[in-house]
Amino acid sequence: MVVKKWKLEKGASCYNCGDATIHDVEVDQYNIKIRCRDCGFARFYAFHMVNLPDKK
Amino acid sequence: MKVHLRVFVEVENLGKAMNALVDAGITGFYVLEYKGMSPQDWKGFSIKEDPKSAVGLIRDYANDAMLICSVVDEDKTDKIVEEIMESLEGEKYTILEVPIKRIIVNYKQKESERAETWLLEKEVPCFYCGENAVQRIRIDMNKAKIWCTNCGAARYYLVKGVEKEEK
């Protein structure tokens, strides 16, 4: 499973500063990082598991 | 003033009653399923007081029925009731209009409002099926899920921590 790093953006109210700001969302194989562009508050998610359907 | 409109109908007339209510312009409602007995059925009954008999009586004699409730403006009530009466003509129903003294509606705290779920999309080749398909990303406060809209392969992530940058 090889996944290139994705860089996404999401406008939302920041959990930390409460302002409506743009958040950078970086997704790769093992981690997701979400960072508020305004206050720099970041959340990290780590890979947990994968659920694969049967290949047709 | 607002009115709490309660429409009691038999199960088979639920659809008719709901359509009439929607046509009449109600905006929201809730529905309860219940077992009931009308006074004519009830007349002459006296129940043995042990729980088994009481429950058995309900099972054997009470009818399945539905209660549709809605909060409506007082001036619109007559029109709604007329609509129901028209569409349920010849059927068995009961309508109650209860005046409402006060309505208090509480929404969730702002804290949880901020913790809403995010949905993002990215179109790339899927790591599993290889098709160039939309990969949906759902991010909650404590977990995230990424799945392929083509094959359904899903990856799950759990929150690891947060980092505050010093200004």
Descriptive key words:
heterodimer, A: 56 residues, mainly beta, 0% helix, B: 167 residues, alpha+beta, 4-stranded antiparallel beta sheet, 5 helices, elongated
In short:
With 56 residues, chain A is mostly beta strands. Helix content of chain A is 0%, strand content 57%.
SS-based structural class of chain A?
mainly beta
Number of helical stretches of at least 4 residues of chain B: 5
Uncertain runs of chain B: none
Domain count of chain A: the total is 1
Major sheet details of chain A: 4 strands, antiparallel
Q: What is the name of the CATH class of the largest domain in chain B?
A: Alpha Beta
Question: How large, in whole angstroms, is the Cα Rg of chain A?
Answer: 14 Å
CATH architectural group of the largest domain in chain B: 2-Layer Sandwich
H and E string of chain B: EHEHHEHEHEEEE
Using the alpha-carbon principal axes, give the shape of chain B. elongated
Biggest sheet of chain B, open or closed, and with what strands and sense? 4 strands, antiparallel
Strand order of the largest sheet of chain B: 2-3-1-4
Strand portion of chain B, in percent? 35-45%
Shape descriptor of chain A reads elongated
Structural class label of chain B: alpha+beta
Number of strands of chain B: 8
Helix content of chain B: 25-40%
Strand order of the largest sheet of chain A: 1-2-3-4
Q: What is the helix tally of chain A?
A: 0
How confident is the prediction overall: mean pLDDT of chain B?
86
